[in-house]
Amino acid sequence: MKSNRIINITLGILALIIIALLIVLVFSSSQESEENIIANTIQEPVKSNEVNAWTNTEISEEEIARTYFYTYVEDALYNPELAYNALEQEYREKRFGSLQEYQNYIESIREELQEATLHSYMVNEETEGITQIVCRDQNENLYIFDQTALLDYTVTLDTYTLPQEKFETEYATANEQQKVMLNIDKFFQMINAKDYKTAYSVLSEGFKQNNFPTQNSFQQYIESRLYRYNDINYGSFSNEINSIYQGTIQITNRANEEESQNLTIIMQLNEGTDFELAFGVS
Questions:
Q1: Domain boundaries 165-279, corresponding CATH code
Q2: pTM check: above 0.85
Q3: Cα(93)–Cα(13) distance, rounded to whole angstroms?
Q4: Where in the chain are the domains?
Q5: By mean pLDDT, which of 38-47, 92-101, 148-157 is the weakest?
Q6: In the predicted model, what is the mean pLDDT of residues 201-224?
Q7: How far is the C-alpha of 278 from the C-alpha of 282, rounded, in Å?
């Protein structure tokens, strides 16, 4: 009996030892397998192909200009409130004053906007964190995007509504004949942009009272007598008295260079860049 008991105990111990060894072997095999999986993942990375490859592509200046230009045109046509809010705040308040005025303006040029295409663009060097992208359409209308970061920008549509350092520097160094020409150019930028409010504001008070008592009467006259887009050739201007100049310019129809007309201009140069203008009325 005693010997049988000893045998049973011995067999039990051997069984426990065998089970323990099996557990160690299984655990060791599992750990080795896991390490091999990790090692394979590091040593054999996924090879790139057309589906999973990452591409570091730089966006060209032309692509940015096209994106900004056509986004603005599309918004102006079909989401004018969004386009209005994209305008630089001081600019939109001074040029249009309200969303309704902006919408009226868009309606007046709707057919042209529907045909608008990017004709040229220029990127000015970054100044104070702003990169300026200047676009022109086929009619030479301006679309100026002041970009602080990609897709973060404001829009202006001319260079005369807000003070421009470049223009003020050029104006300050110009003689009076040159100042007259710069101001005529600015006036016809307003006419070509259908900005009759600003164009009307630079007419001399006496001239307005005698010829165009309202902005609407001025607009009707311009639209009936001038061309949709007007190009200017300058003659000489004589100094009549006290910085008042008179001369004749030739206005050419941009759509048909064979069509042209002469117009007499009278201008008074005031302080700074201010001026008053009158012209021959027939």
A1: 3.10.450.100
A2: no
A3: 95
A4: 1-51, 61-156, 165-279
A5: 38-47
A6: 98
A7: 13
